[in-house]
Amino acid sequence: MGDVAGEIxxxxxxxxxxxxxxxPDGVPxxxxxxxxxxxxxxxxxxxPFPIKLSGPVQHGFGRGSxxxxxxxxxxxxxxxxxxxxxxxxxxxxxYAQVTPPEGSSSSLSDQDVRVLPMVMSFGWNPFYNNERRxxxxxxxxxxxxxxxxxxxxALVLGYIRPELHYTSREALIEDIEFDKRVALKSMAxxxxxxxxxxxxxxx
Length: 203
What we know:
alpha+beta; 6-stranded antiparallel β-sheet; two-stranded antiparallel ribbon; about 25% strand; globular; nucleotide-binding; kinase; riboflavin kinase activity; Riboflavin kinase
């Protein structure tokens, strides 16, 4: 899935790419990892949120499900300027919806096309040494079929943390699970839940 992640296990497995989280010699600050809250952001989204992204789902790197057990949907590069212009790289949370292209038949169920919670890795994903910025979205729902080419809308509502350099796949997987919990708890507030019925989505 790239670098969507959460609770850090040890400095031997994780190197932080954020200057704000590093010590005076560039050594990762362990307090950043051990004191991470499980709810982030204010009670309502602050500027620059919400950020709207949309586009057809692209074939990605094929590593999220295979390597990390966390399948992702990738947005095309031309859908990313709203994030590039307003936000730093890192891990974000919000809502997403996948719908079939207009006029086409769909293999998705009614449950699949709902507005659903998501976490998104936006950036270079240093564990995999990406050569370009990507937006890799993990929708927290078990889909029974692929949906490449389907339309996806994402409403980004908040920031979880900066990108991190991982030397251990196990640490990355543990952090992915923590980030998902952070996203769900952060969005279980009225100021965020109301965006599930935002006119941006097809509801």
